[in-house]
Amino acid sequence: MTTENFLSDAVSEHSSSGTVCWESPSNIALVKYWGKRGDQLPANPSLSFSLNASRTRTQIRFEPAKSGGFEFRFDGALKPDFHPKLEQFFVRIKPYIPFLDTSFLFIDSSNTFPHSTGIASSASAMSALALGLTDIERSMYPERFTDDFFFQKASFLARLGSGSAARSVYGGYTSWGKLNNRAKYSDLFASPIAPVHQNFQHIQDSILIVSKAVKKVSSTAGHALMQGHPFAQARFKQAQENHIRLQEILQKGNWDAFTDLVETEALSLHAMMMTGTPSYFLMSPESILILDKIREFRKTNQISCCFTLDAGPNVHFLYPDSAKSSVLTWIDKQLKPALSNLEIIHDSIGSGSVKIS
Length: 357
Ligand code: DP6
What we know:
The protein is of the alpha+beta class and 357 residues long. The chain has helices at 82-93, 122-140, 147-161, 219-224, 232-252, 255-275, 285-301, 324-338, and strands spanning 18-31, 36-37, 41-42, 46-64, 71-76, 103-111, 173-176, 190-192, 204-209, 306-309, 315-319, 343-348, 354-355. It is 35% helix and 23% strand.
């Protein structure tokens, strides 16, 4: 598939109106997307799983614009820095959405998690919005859409809003970005990963929130700093290799190999931030304390579990369903007393986006 597959030569003569509503999850990357080029194309492939509880619900009302040109209004509990992203998103997707030119969109969006928790909402928000817009297009031109193409197009559009959002249109484990020697994966949109061993089918994610502050350096600025980074080529190669290895691990069900790889990925991401120019760090002393404690817990109790981090100080604590009661007891008895301001969202792998009727 190429970009042309997603273009539309339709003239926007449609004057229909209506409402669509989609809910889409946030996701957590295991192999990290870090660095991009061109029009939101990733420098390396990434692999994530979609969450269950952390979701955005977006309703779009559409009607012919009175002005004759594109207009939108956005009502949503999203951070102010989302607004410029939204403007840019519409500029980027215009060639691919025929009805946009003459439409007025009223967008109403809400998160199931408080937006002040420091959890990235742009992946779920852009994914829910892209699904809604693709659904409107499908209602106007049903003959263009198979089920597969519907999700591919939604993922393609979501990517133009935020790279990681491309992966959020699907549930379970998802991959985005070309893999050397594997034609199946694309830089343009994400695809689901299967089969996955039952050991990983119910993975849990307790999100340990140590800070709700706005990030010192945005992900978008962080991606840009990979251009000319002295370790960029080695990092992109590492991500390719880790992606291939992780797919094997997910198929075989090997938790020990999983913990090694996932922690290395998280630390490599932060190492890139610390070794670029200018350099910066997003982990806090509390993050490091938690990483240390998770490793200690794993060793002492011989329980498979590990940490990962996004571009921020909050820690995602990953473990199998079977370890849930031990982990929750440990969090209550050991972790909470050591960190007085800790907030936690207990989440797990989820089955993906849904249309709300
Ligand atoms: C560290 O998708 O937020 O979470 O494409 O500029 O919107 P933009 O960046 P974004 O970057 C996410 C980076 C990451 C890793 C990941 O999710 O793969």
